[in-house]
Amino acid sequence: MKKNIKVWHVELKDPARVPASDPDRPYRLEQIKQPSPEFNRYLYICVGSAWLWYMRLPWSYSQWLAAVSRPEQETWVAYHLGVPAGYFELEKQAHGSVEIAYFGLLPEFIGQGLGKALLEDAICRAWALGGKRIWLHTCSLDHPGALSNYLARGFSVFKEEHIVDDLPEQPLQPWVGANKSTTKADATRYGA
Asked: 167 and 139 in contact (C-beta within 8 Å)?
C-alpha cells in the first residue's frame, strides 16, 4: 500500500537548550557492550513493529552483526523490573554529529513518562560521545507524541520532507497473533 509520509529532521546544537531533568529514573540504563545481532533485532521488532519499522526486517544475520559491531555505534537499553522497556542507538558521524538512529519504547511502557527520561539519557550520552550536533528524524508514522517530545527536549526542525513509500496494510507484530497495540487502553489491557 502506497502511503504519503511526512518526515521531520530535528537537531540540537546547544546543551543549554535541554531542560533540566529529574535524576531519578524508573529504569536501569545499560549499554550493550558485546555486539548481539539477535538482541538488537529483538529491540527493533518489539519497539518498531507498531510504527511500521520494516527496513531492517529482511536483513541477514551478517548484516545485523556488521551494523551493531561498528565502533561508531552504541546501543543502550532501559530495563524496568528486569525487562527491556525501551532503547536507543547512537551513531557517531563526521564533523561532531551524533545521530540518535533509533529510539523508542516497547508498547507496554508507552504513556508512563519513560520516553522523556530515556530521550534525555540519549541526549546526555550523545554529548558524552563528543557530539557538537545531535540529530534524528521522525515521521508521521511514529508515535503521535514523538515530535513534541523531541521539541520539548530542545531539538528544532531543520528539514521537512514528504515521501511516498510502499507499506504493509496492517501494523507489524513482533510475532503472529501478538496483536500488540500502542494505545493507552490496550497498554492497560496488557498489564502495563
From this structure: no
Task: For the chain, count helices (H), then strands (E).
Answer: 5, 7
29: helix, strand or coil = strand
Q: For 151-171, what is each residue's pLDDT tens digit?
A: 999 999 999 999 998 887 766
Question: CATH number of the domain that 85 lies in?
Answer: 3.40.630.30
Q: State how far the Cα of 74 lies from the Cα of 71, in Å rounded to an integer.
A: 8
The total number of structural domains in the chain stands at: 1
Domain coverage including residue 175: 2-19+27-189
List pLDDT tens digits, range 1-39.
888 999 999 999 988 777 667 778 999 999 999 999 999
In this prediction the pTM is 0.87
pLDDT at residue 182 is higher than 70:
no
Residue 190's pLDDT band, with cuts at 50, 70 and 90, is very low
Residue 26 pairs in a beta bridge with: none
What is the phi/psi pair of residue 177, to 5°? Answer: 85, 0
CB 90 within 8 A of CB 101: yes
Backbone phi and psi for residue 5, each to the nearest 5 degrees, phi listed first: -130, 130
Residue 16, phi-psi category: left (phi > 0), alpha (psi -120 to 50), beta (remainder) = alpha
Helix pair angle (37-48, 61-69), 10° resolution: 100
- Do residues 126 and 134 touch, judged by C-beta distance below 8 A? yes
Amino acid at 189: R
